[in-house]
Amino acid sequence: MSSLVARSQQRAEHGPLLVSSSSDIHGSVLNDTVVQRNCTLHVRGNVLGSLTIEPGANVVVEGSVDGKIVNKGGRLLVHNKGLAACVTLDGPAEAEAGGVLKINLSNIAANFATLSKRTEAECAAVVKANAYGCGIGPVTAVLAKTGCKTFFVSNLPEARSVRAVAPGAGIYVLNGFYSGTGRAFAEVDARPVINNSMELAEWDFFFVGSSGWPGGCALNVDTGGSSLGLSIDEAAAFAPRVHSPKPCISLLIGRLDYQQTSRNPLNERQLNLFRDLRRLYDGIPASLANSFGILSSAKAHFDLVRAGGALYGLNPAPGAANPMLPVIELHARIVQVRDLAAGKPLADNIGLIAKRHMRLALVSTGYADGYPRAASGPPGKMHAIVGGQRCPVAGPPSVDLLPIDVTNLPDQSAARPGEMATLIGAEIGPDELAAAVTSSGREILARLGHRFHRIYHTI
């Protein structure tokens, strides 16, 4: 049986996929597909286009068929596994790229399910900042199939990306509304999150004069110390508008600003302020809890919760075991191996001077790819996995090189040009890397660059 994995990744504009021999596809088919007479096709994924089956053909699809099915006399079995094993590729070719970034869409879906089960409210997904660097298109598509109905994005271009793969979803744009964007919001059918009184005036002027679009906006209210959003007084003054013949508010939102612990009394104060304000907005859905709030305080759930960093494997409960499944793996190629004598510097402005004899593996990832630099001092707690062993990162990254100390590696042959080092994975999560550089897991993910060969998979 032949394999059509590579061919299954071609774009639909290249024409339909013609199956003229018995074939097994380990992945999803992006094209319209025609299975010719007496041929057998086994798709271990989803058929994203239409499927035509000629007489005598035998087709098994482990996932689903999104397009039209035309059966002219063959046999078809569809298992309808919503997240069947599939692979989508992006970025430069793997053989040419300096690194490989793997995004586990099944684990994103599982994390969404875990958070959804912790609340009776609707669970929305925050896919802002290109889904925290993980890829807004593939992430939104899998979440929509998992049952997510509402998405929060950064801006209108991201809203368009969500609309392309989730036609019936509700979309809220966190960066707000400014003059001249009303028509675009209506075209995309996205709703702005209003963050200040000037935006509110612009929105009110546009919405009252619009016709035919039901629209609506979210009001973002600052109940704590973030200074992001309308003040309590501004929001209270606008509340009578919810009783107008054409109310323009579809959601009232806030946030918990003090997320180090669920027992912080300031969280309780924010919750009480938000609850009091919600009474003025009778009948308007309300949302306060993010990933942290979903797990820490059922009282903060209201009508809708917003799952963010936890979807991507980040720990929503600082100081406790992470209940989320890991989502990303980052592997970088070793391009050079160097021996440094004590006192010798490493070039390329890395700023490393060997204090002893060192053997260094230089991997092709640097700050141009989003790999972080420590705020001050030596990297210290930063590590990579080489040959199955934790090895310390020996110095800060340059533009596109990272030095790893492999001096004590038991098997020196594991550190040779062409081999891969693991920079992020099950052994070294983004939260651990963030802690080593006094950053956050969200920042680590969001900065991941586009020079990697990307593999989106569901298993």
Describe the structure.
- The chain is an alpha/beta fold.
- It folds into three domains: 2-82, no CATH class; 118-312, Alanine racemase (TIM Barrel, Alpha-Beta Barrel), CATH 3.20.20; 328-458, Lyase, Ornithine Decarboxylase, Chain A, domain 1.
- The chain is 23% helix and 26% strand.
- It contains twelve helices and 28 strands.
- The strands form six sheets. Strands 18-17-16-15-14-13-12-19 form an eight-stranded parallel sheet.
- Helix 6 (182-188) links the parallel strand 14 and strand 15 (191-194).
Provide the descriptors you would attach to this structure in a database record.
459 residues, alpha/beta, TIM Barrel, Lyase, Ornithine Decarboxylase, Chain A, domain 1, 3 domains, 8-stranded parallel sheet, 7-stranded mixed sheet, 12 helices, 28 strands, 23% helix, globular, disordered N terminus
Question: What is the secondary structure topology, with strand pairs?
Answer:
Elements lengths: L1 E2 L1 H4 L8 E3 L3 E3 L7 E3 L4 E4 L7 E3 L4 E4 L7 E3 L3 E4 L7 E5 L8 E6 H12 L5 E5 L1 H5 L3 H11 L3 E4 L2 H10 L4 E4 L8 H7 L2 E4 L2 H13 L7 E4 L11 H7 L10 E5 L11 H16 L5 E2 L3 H6 L7 E4 L20 E13 L4 E2 L5 E2 L4 E6 L19 E4 L2 E4 L9 E4 L14 E5 L5 H7 L4 H6 L6 E6 L1
Helix pairs in contact: 2-4, 4-5
Proportion of residues in β-strands: 25-35%
CATH topology of the largest domain: TIM Barrel
CATH homologous group name of the largest domain: Alanine racemase
Count up the helices.
Answer: 12
